[in-house]
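Narrative of activities, Objective 1.

The group set out to show that a structural description can be obtained from nothing but a protein's sequence at a throughput compatible with the screening campaign. Below is one input-output pair from the validation batch, recorded exactly as produced.
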Amino acid sequence: MFGNSDPNIIYLFLKLLRYCYDIDENKFRCTLQDRADQNIKKLEKFWRLVTKIPKKQFYKARIDPRTIGKISKKPEYKGVCVIDYFSADILNEFKKIVEVIYKNGPVA
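Output recorded for this entry:
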C-alpha cells in the first residue's frame, strides 16, 4: 500500500513500479481519501488520469469525518490517493530493499 496527496509522487511511484516489475494491471486498486465538501466524481476522474488505473479498480472513496461541516481552505487539494497492488512477491522484495537500506544507512 502506498498513498500520497501529491499527484507527481503517485505518478512517479507507479512509473517506477511499472518499469521495474512485470506488472499485472488488474492487481491494482485505488482508494481515495477525501474531505466531506469535495466532489468525489471529479476527484476520481482526476486520479484515474494520473494513475492510468480504470474506474472499476477504484474502491469507494473514504470521507474524513473530521471534515464534515468544514469548508476546504485549499481548493487545489485533491485528497489522498492510496494505491494497493496485490502481490506478495513484490511486497517481500520491497521489505528486503528497506532492510538493506536500513542496515547500510542513508543512500546519500
